[in-house]
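Blackboard transcription, Thursday session:
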Amino acid sequence: MTPMIDIRNLSVTFTGRGKAVRAVDDVSLSVAPGEVVALLGESGSGKSVTLRSLLRLHPKNRSRMEGTIRVDGEDVLALSPRALADYRGRKVSMIFQDPGLAMDPVYTVGRQIVETIRRHESVSTAEAEARALALFKKVSIPAPERRLAAYPSSMSGGMRQRAMIALALACNPKVLLADEPTTALDATVQIQILLLLRDLQRELGLSVIFVTHDIGVAVEVADRVAVMYAGRIVEEGKVADVVRTPRHPYTRGLLAARVEHAVPGSRLETIPGAPPDLAELPAGCAFRERCVVAEPRCAAERPAFVQRSPTRGDACLLTG
Amino acid sequence: MTGPLSPASTRNAESVWPPEVWRAPKKTVLDPRDRGGPAQPLLSVTGLVKHFKVGGSPFGEGTVVRAVDGVDFDLIKGETLGIVGESGCGKSTTARLLMQLMPPDAGRLVFDGEELGGALSLTEYRRQVQMVFQDSYASLNPRLTIEDSIAFGPQVHGLPARQAIARAHDLLDRVGLEPARFAGRFPHELSGGQRQRINIARALAMNPRLVILDEAVSALDKSVEAQVLNLLMDLKQEFNLTYIFISHDLNVVRFMVDRVLVMYLGKVAELGGRDAVFNQPAHPYTAALLASMPSMDPDHRVERPPLTGDPPNPINPPPGCRFHPRCAVAEAVCSVKEPEMAATGTDRAGARHAAACLMRAAGSGHSRAPAVAVPA
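(Written on the board underneath:)
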């Protein structure tokens, strides 16, 4: 089956003031139609930058993208500004961590949805309004007629996130990108939004890339997970496989450091140190300095991502 | 389930970096600062209330947010008490009231047998109670070096500058940051995890007995969070501390605390030992909160959200039990009668377990209420 999203050897470098920073380094990832892939990583791992590359959201004069991105057969990096504007929201749309910042505070939520629909399709305002109402019902917003006339600031966090999901789905995209959409929410609301996304994804057959720092969230929503560290994918596989038998020392460390299954009051296993500075990455494997099983050859050679089986791969010299 | 790393390699890792402050747990010696003896609660909170006025003009009424609406609890010496709840439940306001960062509208604080404002002055109380906040950057002065930040409090309280700096260096060492490398740096030169270690060192500089940790690890990356949690447990032993640990992350709370206090809309919903609350929650709200945690099991994902709707607004709390509009087992009586804390038993460690639910109160009129009250 041809993948819906096919990222090949993507690198993103931010130039601007001072030293150039390579935030994403030679990342390849493909997502099948109707598949949910979680990008898991800490701050600075490059997960959000990878996601934003799919909509080309990086500042043009301060960033450089290399590699290829194909979405539904279309070469994203070659799109003209006009074609890009058609592509955004129509084929691929995105939901953000903070819907309060992503939505326009001076227009009602309903008007923003209507505007989006009419930007992409030639339909009447009345028709677009009817579709907005249907969308609000679909994302289970209580009293949808009243909420369409509300401003983003007068909605609670969970309600705003539902409204943003409605906005993202307004033009029936094939791909939904989610950038930590539940991180700012309470646990009780987070689980509601995760289940809503899971249901909508199934119903609409969406391909989803879901960026998160929380393994628990990845397990709830994703089919596959790709773990990122210092701008690269270090491990990839089915969620159940990665969670049960992690291979890369970083993934193993992350899972071992979790408090969920630790005996209360016992000492936690930890990954020593902190994530590296992307502007001054060490030679060889970027995780080497924090790695408990590192060998001298890890400093000499940077491990490439190797597909070990049809469904699994990692980037470690010692797991082969 | 996680394929643990071999013990030998783990030890090896800890000797590299950062230097972990792991020392053999000391036996609990009698603290010379102790006044009331081990049975006296370190902090006794009674009838704590804080309402905020929003809107309105100097002449008009506006509305009232009942952020904290009558909270009582005792903090046992040497324990870690967790406070959990959704946003808007009043957990951070409670922390700020305990720290006296704002005046409560009503309520008494008794610290080790001495009433605040009576036998105990605010200056002395503040020496004994310290706080660590979520935002590690905003809580440090960007123009002060690390050592000056840590030495600032003791100097204000009368310690000569030279001694205060020496103490700062000692504390930096204890929180796992080399004084020679870090003392002269500024907050923006450090990572989030390092800054949070500084904030912990600064809280300890006053030699407090109670440290309030308000979402202190929530902003850290998972791999760094584990390091800081280990550090907090070591320091608790070493400095004979009592913690109030506030977090929205129930997994971290379960790991850290001895007892848990669950808050809902400014009131205590449940209070009990960690195992009792996590294994047999007595309040339907606690049960729903626990069921909202991601399952971590790809074969048994959560299928239905345990609670619908957002946390309600503390501006107009519903009458009767505040949780009744979202409660699956609510009955007519719940919208009329406000539940009091009722004992549900004692756990193995001897901690009392109580919940503010009509199902737990004998003769409340709820069909699932017990016939006879459980003795407290």
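Lecturer's comment: The first strand of chain B starts at residue 43 and ends at 54.
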